[in-house]
C-alpha cells in the first residue's frame, strides 16, 4: 500500500524546446522566415505561452464538464428566474422535509463513518501489526479494492438478500427467536442503512488507515517499553496521539463518502427514503411536484458545501499526520 | 555501575541459528563493541540483552543476577536505537523526561534532569523542538539523553550512527564515548563499522554468523587477528598462501618468496599458513633505471595510486601476486604508476594463521 | 595466490523475523471482517440459486443471460467503459506527461483539480450538467455524452495512477535521453514513455472499467439504459434474477481487481491497487 509522498523535483529543464531539429533539416544559423512544421519552432522560454498550451485541453475539459456546471449551479442557487440575487433557495433548505433530509443524511454519515472507521481501524491494525501470516495484508488490500466497488445497486441487492424482509440472516435470526422486523427494523431504517453503508466504508477505511498504521514505527513502542511504559501507556501517550490526525482525517473522508451516496440508498428504499441525494434525484426527475425549480440547485449546493468542507478537513488533517508519520 | 555477563546465549529462529552459545563478559564501566557484518547476530544479541527477544537458552547476568525472566520494561537499561526512535509528538525535553515520568518522578525533578542531560549532549538550545525539527545527529543525541535520563545500569546502542552522514558520525561517536566515560556507564555498542569500533571501544567482540570470532582491545584485534575473518574484516590486509620454512621465515606466493617473520607465531615448520601483511608494513624503494633488486627485497611494479590524504594506497604487482602498500604521500610521489620498486616486508607486521 | 582484502561488505542479510503466534484480537477482528464481507455475498448467492421451496439451480442465471435487455445494457455499459478509458487516457497521459516535464509548478493545481470530482458528488454534478445542457439540449440526446462525463468521474483515479507511474520512471531523464538521440516529442511520448507506464495506465483503466460498469446515479437521472439501470429495473420486479445479476456484477468486479492485483504483483511497482473507486 503506497502512501508516501515524493518530494517535488526541481525544474532544471533548460530552454530547449521539446521538438529538436533533425540533422537533415539543419541549416545555417540564420532563422528561417517562416517556421514550418513542429521542428522549426523557435526556442521558447520556459514560461512561454506554448508551454502552458500543453495543459489547455485538460483544463478546458475539466472546466466544461466540471467547473462550469458547478458555477451554473451556484449561480442558479443564488438567483431568481428573473436574474435577481436571492437567498430564498438556500433558506428553503432550512425547513420541512429538506431540513429533515439533511439531518438524516448527516446522521447516517456520522454513524457509518464512526462505525466503519472503528471497525476498519481494528481490522487494519490486525492485518498490519497483528503478526498474522504473510499473505493477509496483500489479500486484504485486494479484497478492499474489490469490496469498495460493490457499492451501489449490487450492494443494495446483497443486503436486501441478507437483511431484507425475507433475507437469509433475517430468517436465521427469526429461527432463533429474534424477529428484527417486529422490532421496527427495516433495511432502510437508520440502522439498516448504516449497516449497508459500512460495507463500502470499511474497505475505504482500511485502505486509508493502513499506511498510517505502518507508519507507527516499531522503534517507538520498543523505546517506550525500554523506558518502562506498559502497552496501554504507550498507546495513550504516543500511539493514539500520533495516529489521531490520520484517524480523524479518515473518518471525515468516510463521512463525505457516505453523504454522497445515491445509488445504494435509492435501491434499498425504492427511492423513498429522505436523504439529501435522494431529494435531489426526485427534484431532477420530476417525481415530486415542487414550487421552486431552483431547489435542486440549492440542495446540490448545500451538498457540495458539506462534502467540500470534509475534503478540505481531510487534506488538512493528512498534512498534519504526515509530519509525524513520515 | 553494573557488570554484564552473557553465558552461552543461544538463539534459534526456526531452522536458523542466529547466535551460537555466545559468552561475553562486560566489566563495569567498560564500552564493549559488538562488531560484525549484517546478519552476524550482533543486533540479536543486543535485543536479547534489552529484553526484546528471548534466547533459546543461556544466562544473562547483570551484577550476578539473571535478568532473563525480567520483562524489558523493568530491566533498567537505556537503549539507543538506530533511527526514528524519538516520539514524534513530544519535544526533545518531553522525550527525555519520558522514562522518568513512567517511573513517577516528580515533575520538577523530571524537568531538571532533562535539562541537565540535554545540556550534556549539547542541545540545551533545542529543548522545545520536535523531532522533525531536528537533524539526524541531533535526534540521536536526544535519544542518548533520553536513555541516560533513567540512570540505567547498562547502556545499549544499536548502530546509533549508521543512518547519519560521515562527518556527523565521526563527531558524534567521540561525543558518545566522552559521555560514556564521564558517567562511567557499562555500555554495549553494536556496529558494522570497524573504524567506529576501533576508535571508541575498550574492547571489541568481532562476530560472524552467530559466532564470536575474537574479543580483545582494539590494538590487539588489529595487530593480531586470530582468524581469517577478523583479519579481513578489521582493516585492510594483504593475504598470501605460504609455508613455514623456519621459526623466523616463511615463503609466500607461487614464487615462494622468503619473508622474515618474528618468532613465537606458534605455527609448525613445513606447515601451510595464511600469511597476513598490513599495508603499512610493506616498504618500497624506487629502483632507478634497471638497478638491481637489493638484498632481502623482491621486485614489484606500481599499478595504481589512491590518494588518501597523508597516506597513499599503492597497488603493486609482483611475482608473489598483487599487493597493497600504504606509503606516506610525499614519498609516493616519487613512485608513479609503472615504476619498478623493491619491496620489503617488515617482519613485525607479518601475522601467520595456520590453515 | 594473493588476495587483497578490503573491509568486508557482505550483502545485507536480514535476520529472520521471529513469528510469534498472532494474538486473539488479531484473529478475532480478521474473522469479523471476513464474516461481514462474506455473509452478504453468500446470502445473495443463495437467493440467486433458489429455484423453488427447497430446490436450487441456475435457472435465474439462464433467464438473465437470455434476456435481450441484459445483453443490450451490458454491452452499452461496456462500450461506454472502453470509450471512457480511451478518452481518459488520450486526455490525461499527454497532460500528466507535460506537467511532469515542463510545468511541475502546476502540480498542486492538478492535485486540486483531480480531487474536485470527490467534492462534487455525481448527484450534484448531474444537477449542474442539466443546467448547462438545458442550453445545449442536443448534447443530452446522444448517449455518448455519458462517456465524457464518466471521464470526470474516473479522473481522480486515472490521474493518481498516471502521476504515480510517471513519478516512478523519472520522466525528465528519459525524455532528455531520448532528445539527445534526436527523437521528436511525440515519438518520445509514444515509444519511450508509454511502454514504461503501462502498469499505471492499465491500473487506471481497470478502475475506470469498474466505475463505469457500476455507475447508476448519472445514467439513471439522465435517463440512459446502462447496466446498473437495468439491474435496478430487474430488482424492482423480481428478487431472484436481481440477486443473480448482483453475483454476475460482483464476479466482474472481482475479475477486474484480480487482474489489477496480478498486474501490480508482476510489475511490482508504480501502481497502487489501494486506490478505490466507488459508485455509490
**How many strands of chain B?**
20
Order of secondary-structure elements of chain A: HHHHHHHHHHHHH
**How many domains make up the coordinates of chain B?**
2
CATH topology of the largest domain in chain B: Rossmann fold
The general outline of chain B is elongated
CATH architecture annotation of the largest domain in chain B? 3-Layer(aba) Sandwich
Structural class of chain A: mainly alpha
CATH architect. name of the domain at 98-324 in chain A: Orthogonal Bundle
Which strand-content bin applies to the residues of chain A? under 5%
Q: Could you estimate the helical fraction of the residues of chain A in percent?
A: 55-70%
Reported by name, the CATH topology of the domain at 98-324 in chain A is MetI-like fold
Spans of at least 5 consecutive residues with low confidence of chain A: 1-41
Q: Tell me the Rg of chain B in angstroms.
A: 25 Å
Structural class of the helix and strand makeup of chain B? alpha+beta
Largest interface: A-C, 109 and 106 residues
Polypeptide structure, described:
With 326 residues, chain A is mainly α. Chain A has helices at 49-53, 56-77, 88-91, 96-129, 136-147, 153-163, 168-175, 190-214, 218-226, 231-259, 263-269, 276-284, 295-324. The longest helix of chain A is centred in the middle third of the chain and has 34 residues, at 96-129. Chain A is globular and about 75 Å long. A six-stranded mixed sheet of chain B has the order 6-7-8-3-9-10, with helices on both faces. A five-stranded antiparallel sheet of chain B has the order 13-12-11-14-20. Chain B has helices spanning 42-50, 92-102, 107-120, 136-149, 166-183, 194-200, 218-223, 228-233, 329-332, and strands spanning 4-13, 16-26, 31-35, 57-62, 65-66, 77-80, 154-158, 186-191, 203-208, 211-216, 237-246, 249-252, 257-260, 272-277, 282-286, 298-307, 311-318, 321-328, 340-345, 350-354. Chain B has 355 residues and is an alpha+beta fold. In chain B, helix 2 (92-102) crosses helix 3 (107-120), helix 2 (92-102) runs parallel beside helix 4 and helix 3 packs across helix 4. In chain B, strand 9 and strand 10 (211-216) form a beta hairpin. Chain B contains nine helices and 20 strands. Chain C is mainly α. Chain C has one domain (69-267): MetI-like fold (Orthogonal Bundle). Chain C contains 13 helices and one strand; from the N terminus they run E-H-H-H-H-H-H-H-H-H-H-H-H-H. Chain C has helices spanning 24-49, 59-66, 68-101, 107-119, 122-135, 137-141, 145-168, 171-180, 185-196, 198-214, 217-221, 227-237, 239-267, and one strand spanning 2-5. In chain C, helix 4 crosses helix 7 (145-168). Chain C starts with a strand and ends in a 13-residue tail after the last helix. The model of chain C is unreliable at 1-17 and 269-279 (pLDDT under 50). The interface between A and C is large, with 109 and 106 residues. Strand 11 (237-246) of chain B pairs antiparallel with strand 1 of chain C, so a sheet runs across the interface.
Amino acid at each position: 500500500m503506497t502512501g508516501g509522498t515524493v518530494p517535488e523535483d526541481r525544474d532544471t529543464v533548460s530552454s530547449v524546446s521539446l521538438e529538436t531539429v533533425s540533422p537533415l533539416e539543419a541549416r545555417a544559423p540564420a532563422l528561417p522566415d517562416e517556421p514550418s512544421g513542429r521542428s522549426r519552432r523557435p526556442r521558447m522560454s520556459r514560461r512561454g505561452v506554448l508551454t502552458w498550451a500543453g495543459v489547455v485541453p485538460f483544463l478546458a475539459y475539466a472546466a466544461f464538464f466540471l467547473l462550469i456546471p458547478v458555477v451554473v449551479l451556484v449561480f442558479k442557487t443564488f438567483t431568481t428566474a428573473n436574474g435577481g440575487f436571492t437567498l430564498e433557495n438556500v433558506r428553503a433548505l432550512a425547513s420541512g422535509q429538506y431540513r429533515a433530509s439533511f439531518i438524516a443524511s448527516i446522521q447516517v454519515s456520522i454513524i457509518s463513518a464512526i462505525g466503519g472507521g472503528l471497525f476498519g481501524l481494528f481490522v487494519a491494525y490486525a492485518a498490519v501489526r497483528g503478526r498474522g501470516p504473510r499473505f493477509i495484508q496483500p489479500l486484504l488490500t485486494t479484497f478492499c479494492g474489490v469490496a469498495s466497488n460493490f457499492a451501489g445497486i449490487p450492494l443494495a441487492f446483497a443486503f436486501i438478500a441478507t437483511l431484507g424482509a425475507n433475507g437469509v440472516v433475517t430468517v436465521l435470526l427469526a429461527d432463533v427467536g429474534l424477529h428484527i422486523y417486529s422490532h421496527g427494523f427495516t433495511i432502510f431504517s437508520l440502522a439498516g442503512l448504516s449497516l449497508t453503508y459500512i460495507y463500502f466504508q470499511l474497505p475505504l477505511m482500511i485502505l486509508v488507515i493502513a499506511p498510517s498504521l505502518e507508519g507507527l514505527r516499531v522503534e517507538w513502542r520498543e523505546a517506550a517499553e525500554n523506558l518502562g511504559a506498559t502497552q496501554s501507556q504507550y498507546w495513550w501517550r504516543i500511539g493514539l496521539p500520533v495516529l489521531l490526525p490520520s484517524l480523524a482525517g479518515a473518518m471525515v473522508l468516510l463521512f463525505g463518502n457516505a453523504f454522497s451516496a445515491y445509488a445504494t440508498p435509492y435501491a434499498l428504499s425504492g427511492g423513498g427514503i429522505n436523504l439529501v441525494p435522494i431529494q435531489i434525484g426526485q427534484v431532477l426527475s420530476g417525481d415530486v411536484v415542487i414550487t421552486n425549480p431552483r431547489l435542486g440547485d440549492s440542495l446540490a449546493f448545500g451538498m457540495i458545501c458539506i462534502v467540500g468542507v470534509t475534503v478540505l478537513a481531510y487534506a488538512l488533517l493528512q498534512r498534519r499526520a504526515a509530519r509525524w508519520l513520515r | 555501575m553494573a557488570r554484564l555477563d552473557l553465558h552461552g546465549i543461544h538463539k534459534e529462529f526456526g531452522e536458523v541459528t542466529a547466535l551460537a552459545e555466545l559468552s561475553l563478559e562486560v566489566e563495569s564501566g567498560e564500552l564493549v563493541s559488538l562488531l560484525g557484518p549484517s546478519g552476524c547476530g550482533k543486533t540479536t544479541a543486543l535485543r536479547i540483552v534489552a529484553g526484546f527477544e528471548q534466547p533459546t537458552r543461556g544466562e544473562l547476568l547483570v551484577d550476578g543476577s539473571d535478568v532473563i525472566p525480567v520483562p524489558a520494561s523493568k530491566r533498567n537499561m537505556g537503549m539507543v536505537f538506530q533511527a526514528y526512535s524519538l516520539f514524534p509528538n513530544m519535544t526533545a525535553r518531553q522525550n527525555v523526561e519520558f522514562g522518568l515520568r513512567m517511573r513517577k518522578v516528580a515533575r520538577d525533578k523530571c524537568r531538571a534532569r532533562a535539562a541537565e542531560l540535554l545540556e550534556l549532549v549539547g542541545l540545551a538550545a533545542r529543548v522545545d523542538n520536535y523531532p522533525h525539527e531536528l537533524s539526524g545527529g541531533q535526534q540521536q543525541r536526544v535519544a542518548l539523553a533520553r536513555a541516560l535520563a533513567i540512570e540505567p545500569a547498562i547502556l545499549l546502542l544499536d548502530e546509533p550512527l549508521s543512518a547519519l552522514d560521515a562527518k556527523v558520525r565521526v563527531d558524534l561517536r567521540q561525543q558518545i564515548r566522552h559521555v560514556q566515560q564521564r558517567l562511567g556507564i557499562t555500555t554495549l555498542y553494536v556496529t558494522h563499522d570497524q573504524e567506529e569500533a576501533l576508535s571508541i571501544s575498550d574492547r571489541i567482540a568481532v562476530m560472524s554468523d552467530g559466532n564470536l570470532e575474537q574479543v580483545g582491545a582494539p590494538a590487539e584485534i588489529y595487530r593480531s587477528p586470530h582468524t581469517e575473518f577478523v583479519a579481513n574484516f578489521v582493516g585492510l590486509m594483504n593475504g598470501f598462501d605460504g609455508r613455514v620454512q623456519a621459526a623466523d621465515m616463511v615463503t609466500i606466493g607461487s614464487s615462494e618468496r622468503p619473508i622474515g617473520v618474528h618468532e613465537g607465531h606458534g605455527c609448525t615448520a613445513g606447515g601451510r599458513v595464511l600469511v597476513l601483511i598490513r599495508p603499512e608494513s610493506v616498504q618500497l624503494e624506487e629502483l632507478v633505471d634497471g638497478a638491481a633488486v637489493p638484498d632481502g627485497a623482491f621486485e614489484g611494479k606500481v599499478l595504481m595510486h589512491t590518494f588518501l590524504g597523508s597516506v597513499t594506497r599503492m597497488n603493486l604487482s609482483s611475482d608473489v601476486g598483487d599487493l597493497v602498500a600504504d606509503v606516506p604521500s610525499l614519498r609516493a610521489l616519487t613512485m608513479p604508476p609503472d615504476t619498478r620498486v623493491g619491496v620489503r616486508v617488515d617482519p613485525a607486521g607479518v601475522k601467520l594463521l595456520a590453515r | 595466490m594473493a588476495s587483497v582484502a578490503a573491509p568486508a561488505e557482505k550483502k545485507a542479510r536480514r535476520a529472520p523475523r521471529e513469528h510469534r503466534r498472532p494474538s486473539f484480537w488479531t484473529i478475532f477482528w480478521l474473522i469479523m471482517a471476513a464474516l461481514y464481507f462474506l455473509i452478504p455475498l453468500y446470502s445473495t448467492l443463495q437467493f440467486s440459486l433458489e429455484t423453488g421451496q427447497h430446490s436450487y439451480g441456475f435457472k435465474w442465471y439462464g433467464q438473465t443471460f437470455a434476456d435481450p435487455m441484459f445483453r443490450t445494457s451490458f454491452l452499452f455499459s461496456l462500450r461506454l467503459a472502453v470509450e471512457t478509458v480511451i478518452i481518459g487516457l488520450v486526455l490525461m497521459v499527454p497532460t500528466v506527461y507535460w506537467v511532469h516535464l515542463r510545468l511541475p509548478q502546476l502540480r498542486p493545481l492538478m492535485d486540486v483539480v483531480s480531487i474536485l470530482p470527490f467534492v462534487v458528488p455525481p448527484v450534484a454534478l448531474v444537477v449542474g450538467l442539466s443546467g448547462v445542457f438545458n442550453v445545449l439540449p442536443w448534447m443530452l440526446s446522444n448517449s455518448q455524452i455519458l462517456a465524457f462525463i464518466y471521464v470526470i468521474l474516473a479522473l481522480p483515479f486515472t490521474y493518481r495512477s498516471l502521476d504515480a507511474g510517471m513519478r516512478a520512471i523519472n520522466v525528465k531523464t528519459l525524455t532528455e535521453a531520448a532528445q539527445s538521440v534526436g527523437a521528436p516529442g511525440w515519438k518520445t511520448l509514444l515509444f519511450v514513455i508509454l511502454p514504461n507506464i503501462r502498469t499505471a495506465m492499465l491500473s487506471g483503466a481497470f478502475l475506470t472499467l469498474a466505475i463505469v460498469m457500476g455507475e447508476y446515479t448519472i445514467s439513471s437521472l439522465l435517463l440512459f439504459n446502462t447496466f446498473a439501470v437495468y439491474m435496478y429495473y430487474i430488482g424492482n420486479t423480481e428478487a431472484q434474477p436481481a440477486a443473480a445479476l448482483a453475483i454476475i456484477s460482483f464476479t466482474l468486479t472481482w475479475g477486474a481487481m484480480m487482474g489489477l492485483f496480478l498486474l501490480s504483483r508482476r510489475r511490482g511497482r508504480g501502481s497502487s491497487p489501494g486506490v478505490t473507486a466507488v459508485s455509490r
